[in-house]
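Order emerges. One example.
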Amino acid sequence: MTAVAESPAVGEVTALTVTLKILRTNPEGTADHAAGESYWEEFQVEAHATDRVLDALHKVKWDQDGSLSFRRSCAHGVCGSDAMRINGRNRLACKTLLKDLNPARPITVEPIKGLPVEKDLIVDMEPFFASYREIMPFLMTTGAAPTRERLQSPEDRARFDDTTKCIMCAACTSSCPVFWTDGQYFGPQAIVGAHRFIFDSRDEGQWDRLEILNDKAGVWKCRTAFNCTEACPRGIEVTKAISEVKRALTSGEV
């Protein structure tokens, strides 16, 4: 169905009828589909051009099919829970406006790739979090606990500022073709998480993390496709961070 735009009155936002084409999977099966079988289903939604894909999904769930399943929490691009493939690209549903997607054509919505699908747009995030835990994402220090804040210069802080922006949405990792095909690869986000501590002047576990990432499942699996950088909703230069970790390993300097 083609989206129909109504002429707005002065000060009003354009109204649209959009088609959402959603990839569905029900682990228990349906009357027409076997358990775990994936299939496409279309829904027509009345919306406004400035609505987000998340708003359209809410209208489907609340008004048309309550069985539609997806994750969302803050709805403001902070929690990262509603990452999904929208028109073939990893995005946050809460930050993607309908007007930016050519709503005259069906908008495809799928779960992110490379992680097991639990139901509809919900994937099992445990493999993703397991990789993150493995790189020890916490400050590692020795000696007695400090009696005051650990000071750091603006220059030292700037070395890892970019990778502190990660919201762990998995958009980067699930856009990586190596991650799709290699069940052992840590994935871009785990390396970004390690980068944040490797280059933190207050941390003393840099070489422990670098040793982990020097493994065959670590940074050397990266093929510099830049999919991860393009997918990041926070604008983190993911490929650059991975390159900096590689450079630290080859140079022996942090």
